[in-house]
Design goal:
mainly alpha, MetI-like fold
Protein backbone atom coordinates (compact mmCIF):
# COMPACT_ATOMS: atom_id res chain seq x y z
CA UNK A 1 0.00 0.00 0.00
CA UNK A 2 2.97 2.31 0.40
CA UNK A 3 3.26 2.83 -3.35
CA UNK A 4 -0.45 3.54 -3.63
CA UNK A 5 -0.17 6.15 -0.90
CA UNK A 6 2.98 7.51 -2.55
CA UNK A 7 1.08 8.15 -5.77
CA UNK A 8 -1.70 9.75 -3.73
CA UNK A 9 0.94 12.03 -2.19
CA UNK A 10 2.15 12.94 -5.67
CA UNK A 11 -1.41 13.80 -6.73
CA UNK A 12 -2.14 15.79 -3.59
CA UNK A 13 1.15 17.71 -3.64
CA UNK A 14 1.69 18.29 -7.35
CA UNK A 15 2.57 21.96 -6.82
CA UNK A 16 5.20 21.22 -4.19
CA UNK A 17 6.72 18.42 -6.25
CA UNK A 18 6.80 20.61 -9.37
CA UNK A 19 8.61 23.37 -7.49
CA UNK A 20 11.11 20.92 -6.01
CA UNK A 21 11.60 19.20 -9.39
CA UNK A 22 12.44 22.50 -11.07
CA UNK A 23 14.90 23.29 -8.28
CA UNK A 24 16.33 19.75 -8.55
CA UNK A 25 16.84 19.99 -12.31
CA UNK A 26 18.34 23.47 -12.03
CA UNK A 27 21.04 22.16 -9.69
CA UNK A 28 21.69 19.24 -12.04
CA UNK A 29 21.83 21.50 -15.10
CA UNK A 30 24.39 23.82 -13.50
CA UNK A 31 26.59 20.87 -12.52
CA UNK A 32 26.45 19.28 -15.98
CA UNK A 33 27.09 22.60 -17.73
CA UNK A 34 30.19 23.32 -15.64
CA UNK A 35 31.40 19.73 -16.07
CA UNK A 36 31.06 20.07 -19.85
CA UNK A 37 32.94 23.37 -19.82
CA UNK A 38 35.80 21.78 -17.88
CA UNK A 39 35.95 18.24 -19.25
CA UNK A 40 35.12 18.61 -22.95
CA UNK A 41 38.05 20.86 -23.95
CA UNK A 42 40.52 18.69 -22.03
CA UNK A 43 39.21 15.36 -23.31
CA UNK A 44 38.81 16.46 -26.93
CA UNK A 45 42.21 18.12 -27.15
CA UNK A 46 44.05 15.22 -25.51
CA UNK A 47 42.30 12.88 -27.92
CA UNK A 48 43.46 15.04 -30.82
CA UNK A 49 47.03 14.91 -29.55
CA UNK A 50 46.76 11.14 -28.90
CA UNK A 51 48.57 11.82 -25.66
CA UNK A 52 47.68 12.20 -22.04
CA UNK A 53 45.37 9.21 -21.80
CA UNK A 54 47.04 8.30 -18.52
CA UNK A 55 46.11 11.72 -17.14
CA UNK A 56 42.57 11.73 -18.52
CA UNK A 57 41.70 8.21 -17.44
CA UNK A 58 43.23 8.45 -13.98
CA UNK A 59 41.58 11.78 -13.23
CA UNK A 60 38.33 10.10 -14.24
CA UNK A 61 39.05 7.11 -12.03
CA UNK A 62 39.78 9.35 -9.05
CA UNK A 63 36.43 11.04 -9.62
CA UNK A 64 34.66 7.69 -9.63
CA UNK A 65 36.43 6.56 -6.48
CA UNK A 66 35.40 9.59 -4.41
CA UNK A 67 32.02 9.05 -2.70
CA UNK A 68 29.69 11.99 -3.23
CA UNK A 69 28.83 12.12 0.46
CA UNK A 70 32.52 12.37 1.34
CA UNK A 71 33.01 15.23 -1.12
CA UNK A 72 29.99 17.03 0.33
CA UNK A 73 31.25 16.56 3.87
CA UNK A 74 34.70 17.89 3.02
CA UNK A 75 33.21 20.73 0.99
CA UNK A 76 31.31 22.03 4.00
CA UNK A 77 34.62 23.18 5.48
CA UNK A 78 35.31 25.38 2.44
CA UNK A 79 31.94 26.24 0.92
CA UNK A 80 29.56 25.73 3.82
CA UNK A 81 26.08 24.28 3.48
CA UNK A 82 24.17 25.07 0.30
CA UNK A 83 24.02 24.70 -3.47
CA UNK A 84 27.70 25.49 -4.15
CA UNK A 85 28.85 22.53 -2.10
CA UNK A 86 26.33 20.24 -3.80
CA UNK A 87 27.36 21.38 -7.28
CA UNK A 88 31.00 20.65 -6.40
CA UNK A 89 30.14 17.06 -5.45
CA UNK A 90 28.07 16.60 -8.61
CA UNK A 91 30.97 17.94 -10.68
CA UNK A 92 33.20 15.20 -9.31
CA UNK A 93 30.56 12.73 -10.46
CA UNK A 94 29.92 14.27 -13.88
CA UNK A 95 33.43 14.99 -15.13
CA UNK A 96 34.75 11.38 -15.41
CA UNK A 97 32.35 10.04 -18.08
CA UNK A 98 32.54 13.26 -20.10
CA UNK A 99 36.32 13.49 -20.18
CA UNK A 100 36.74 9.75 -20.85
CA UNK A 101 34.26 9.63 -23.71
CA UNK A 102 35.58 12.85 -25.24
CA UNK A 103 39.13 11.51 -25.22
CA UNK A 104 38.21 8.11 -26.67
CA UNK A 105 35.87 9.68 -29.26
CA UNK A 106 38.61 11.76 -30.86
CA UNK A 107 41.45 9.31 -30.27
CA UNK A 108 39.53 6.53 -32.03
CA UNK A 109 38.66 8.47 -35.20
CA UNK A 110 39.65 6.32 -38.18
CA UNK A 111 43.22 6.86 -39.33
CA UNK A 112 42.18 6.81 -42.99
CA UNK A 113 39.96 9.86 -42.53
CA UNK A 114 42.71 11.73 -40.69
CA UNK A 115 45.35 10.88 -43.30
CA UNK A 116 43.04 11.88 -46.14
CA UNK A 117 42.48 15.26 -44.50
CA UNK A 118 46.22 15.74 -44.03
CA UNK A 119 46.74 14.85 -47.68
CA UNK A 120 44.36 17.67 -48.60
CA UNK A 121 46.66 20.08 -46.76
CA UNK A 122 44.59 20.66 -43.64
CA UNK A 123 46.37 22.17 -40.67
CA UNK A 124 46.09 20.45 -37.26
CA UNK A 125 43.39 22.86 -36.08
CA UNK A 126 41.40 22.44 -39.30
CA UNK A 127 41.78 18.68 -39.02
CA UNK A 128 40.39 18.77 -35.50
CA UNK A 129 37.45 21.07 -36.26
CA UNK A 130 36.41 19.70 -39.66
CA UNK A 131 37.20 15.98 -39.38
CA UNK A 132 37.84 14.67 -35.89
CA UNK A 133 35.26 16.71 -33.98
CA UNK A 134 32.27 15.90 -36.23
CA UNK A 135 33.09 12.18 -36.14
CA UNK A 136 33.57 12.31 -32.37
CA UNK A 137 30.26 14.02 -31.57
CA UNK A 138 28.11 10.88 -31.08
CA UNK A 139 30.42 9.16 -28.61
CA UNK A 140 31.21 12.43 -26.87
CA UNK A 141 27.51 13.10 -26.43
CA UNK A 142 27.08 9.62 -24.98
CA UNK A 143 29.40 10.69 -22.16
CA UNK A 144 27.34 13.83 -21.56
CA UNK A 145 24.18 11.73 -21.48
CA UNK A 146 25.67 9.33 -18.94
CA UNK A 147 26.88 12.20 -16.75
CA UNK A 148 23.50 13.92 -16.88
CA UNK A 149 21.65 10.81 -15.72
CA UNK A 150 24.15 10.26 -12.90
CA UNK A 151 23.76 13.85 -11.75
CA UNK A 152 19.96 13.93 -11.88
CA UNK A 153 19.78 10.70 -9.87
CA UNK A 154 22.36 11.85 -7.30
CA UNK A 155 21.20 15.45 -6.86
CA UNK A 156 18.85 14.21 -4.13
CA UNK A 157 21.86 14.58 -1.82
CA UNK A 158 21.27 18.32 -2.01
CA UNK A 159 18.42 17.94 0.45
CA UNK A 160 20.76 16.65 3.14
CA UNK A 161 23.12 19.63 2.78
CA UNK A 162 20.79 22.59 2.36
CA UNK A 163 20.83 22.56 -1.43
CA UNK A 164 17.12 22.13 -1.99
CA UNK A 165 15.37 20.08 -4.65
CA UNK A 166 13.52 16.81 -4.21
CA UNK A 167 16.08 15.77 -1.63
CA UNK A 168 14.34 18.15 0.77
CA UNK A 169 11.36 15.79 0.81
CA UNK A 170 13.37 12.57 0.77
CA UNK A 171 15.48 13.70 3.73
CA UNK A 172 12.51 14.87 5.79
CA UNK A 173 10.37 11.85 6.57
CA UNK A 174 9.25 13.50 9.81
CA UNK A 175 7.39 16.18 7.85
CA UNK A 176 6.31 14.34 4.71
CA UNK A 177 6.02 10.77 5.97
CA UNK A 178 7.11 7.61 4.24
CA UNK A 179 4.58 8.25 1.47
CA UNK A 180 6.24 11.57 0.72
CA UNK A 181 9.71 10.03 0.70
CA UNK A 182 8.67 7.28 -1.70
CA UNK A 183 6.68 9.71 -3.82
CA UNK A 184 9.64 12.07 -4.21
CA UNK A 185 11.88 9.09 -5.02
CA UNK A 186 9.46 8.06 -7.77
CA UNK A 187 9.61 11.58 -9.21
CA UNK A 188 13.42 11.47 -9.18
CA UNK A 189 13.31 8.15 -11.03
CA UNK A 190 10.98 9.62 -13.64
CA UNK A 191 13.25 12.65 -14.06
CA UNK A 192 16.34 10.46 -14.49
CA UNK A 193 14.63 8.19 -17.02
CA UNK A 194 13.16 11.20 -18.80
CA UNK A 195 16.58 12.83 -19.01
CA UNK A 196 18.05 9.65 -20.43
CA UNK A 197 15.26 9.30 -22.98
CA UNK A 198 15.44 12.93 -24.07
CA UNK A 199 19.22 12.91 -24.48
CA UNK A 200 19.05 9.53 -26.24
CA UNK A 201 16.78 11.14 -28.80
CA UNK A 202 19.14 14.09 -29.23
CA UNK A 203 22.09 11.70 -29.53
CA UNK A 204 20.27 9.75 -32.24
CA UNK A 205 19.51 12.90 -34.20
CA UNK A 206 23.08 14.22 -34.17
CA UNK A 207 24.61 10.85 -35.03
CA UNK A 208 25.36 10.29 -38.72
CA UNK A 209 23.16 7.54 -40.14
CA UNK A 210 26.07 5.24 -40.81
CA UNK A 211 27.09 5.33 -37.16
CA UNK A 212 23.69 5.10 -35.48
CA UNK A 213 23.80 1.33 -35.07
CA UNK A 214 27.19 1.48 -33.37
CA UNK A 215 26.81 4.45 -31.03
CA UNK A 216 25.38 2.57 -28.04
CA UNK A 217 28.01 -0.15 -28.34
CA UNK A 218 30.77 2.43 -28.62
CA UNK A 219 29.44 4.29 -25.60
CA UNK A 220 29.44 1.14 -23.49
CA UNK A 221 32.98 0.29 -24.57
CA UNK A 222 34.46 3.78 -24.29
CA UNK A 223 35.67 3.59 -20.71
CA UNK A 224 37.09 0.10 -21.26
CA UNK A 225 39.01 1.26 -24.30
CA UNK A 226 40.29 4.31 -22.45
CA UNK A 227 41.52 2.12 -19.61
CA UNK A 228 43.36 -0.11 -22.07
CA UNK A 229 44.96 2.92 -23.68
CA UNK A 230 46.21 4.36 -20.39
CA UNK A 231 49.44 2.35 -20.09
CA UNK A 232 50.33 2.88 -23.74
CA UNK A 233 50.68 6.66 -23.70
CA UNK A 234 51.59 9.23 -21.12
Amino acid sequence: MTFVHAFQFIGDNAGLLWHKSVEHMAIAAVAVAIAMAVALPIGLWLGHLHRGSFLAVNVANIGRALPSLAVLSIGIAFLGVGKANVVLALLVLAIPPIITNAYVAVDSVETDAVEAARGMGMRPTQLFVKVELPLAIPLTFAGIRTAAVYVVATATLAGFFGGGGLGDIISNQASYGLDGVVGAAIVVTVLALGTDGLLAGVQYLITPRGLRGDTELLGAAAEYEATRAAPETA
